Amino acid sequence: MVRVRQVRQLSHQPTLRPGTTCTPQARRRQEAVRAGSKVARPNQAARSELEETGHEGIRLVLRRQRRNEEQSWGTEAVFNAVILAFDDRYQGRSLPSEATKQAFANLWQTQVQTGDHRGAWDWLDFNEALWGNSEAPYFGAALAAIAVGTAPGYYAPGADKDNDARVELLRSYLKARLPKQNLHNRAWGLWAATKVGGILTKAEQEKLIDQLLEKQRNDGGWSLPSLGPWVRMDGTAQETASDGYASALVLFVLQTAGVPKDDVKIAKGLAWLKRNQAAAGAWRSVSVVKKRDPASHSGKFMSDAATAFAVLALSH
Questions:
Q1: What pLDDT sits at residue 28?
Q2: d(CA 189, CA 194)
Q3: pLDDT at residue 126 greater than cutoff 80
Q4: 156-185 pLDDT per residue, tens
Q5: DSSP notation for 47-109
Q6: 20: buried, middle or exposed (CB in 10 Å: 19+, 13-18, 0-12)?
Q7: Is the pLDDT assigned to residue 244 strictly greater than 90?
Q8: What is the mean pLDDT of residues 223-238?
């Protein structure tokens, strides 16, 4: 709840850029920018001059920094909206809070209006799958649709023509781009389709459900590398065993899409989750970027995601 309160507080501050994140680091960055700190960021005129006339290395750094800032506004706007939408839902609200309304205003302000990603959002690209590479804008757009469909009383088709137009852009992007996505992204697209109508037909949903079920391993789990054609940066082979994140995500999404808990394959998958919880309470997962020590800080990142979705899948 502390982190949710931070998001709510930041969403009310008009001096922050749209989509400001709730992290203390971002708060300090924004305060430094408002104070005119040249250490945090050169003023716009000086920055533009450096980009045009400075040393080549400086120009590249500044342009990359500018692009990262643009990407962060979209990324942060999506996450703020989805966090607050779920918090409103869990609190039993019938209408979105003022902070949530502001988060959605920021969300739509940062929606891409032109180009290949029209209808989606600029997304941070660190060249790291699953959520920070060139494939991630689809994941971000799916999250935005999930936020729209989760916030209580926020969106009703036909009630607001501006929102209808924004959601239609988002729907069109998700629908048109889904066939070319890896199976991991398509799983997120399936979840989005349960929240915003018109992304998938009933037949398309059933086909995608079958595709996900086909990837189930004999032990009942799913392997993350089987959901996408990823190649590790360090040259090590992808792990093929069932893992917590892939298993939990697929099981949660399939149940959300209407596959019953007593379905033979769902029951087998949930049994795998119950058998594979670590003594400390978490579920282990793997990185598709490089081989990581599961006990390291970076190694625990995927296990955090696995544990969150395992709880969602088991408690659905």
A1: 45
A2: 9
A3: yes
A4: 999 999 999 999 999 999 999 999 999 999
A5: HHHHHHHS-HHHHHHHHHHHHHHHHHHHHHHHHHHHHHHHHHHHTT-SS--HHHHHHHHHHHH
A6: buried
A7: yes
A8: 96
User: Where do the structural domains in the chain lie, given as residue ranges?
Assistant: 1-200, 202-316
What is the Cβ-side half-sphere exposure of residue 57, based on CA atoms within 13 angstroms?
A: 0
CA distance 106 to 314: 33
CB 30 within 8 A of CB 17: yes
181 Cβ contact partners less than 8 Å away, ≥ 6 residues apart: 135, 138, 189
The one-letter amino acid code at 254 reads L
- What is the band of 62 on the pLDDT scale with cuts at 50, 70, 90? very low
Phi, psi of 93 (to 5 degrees): -70, 150
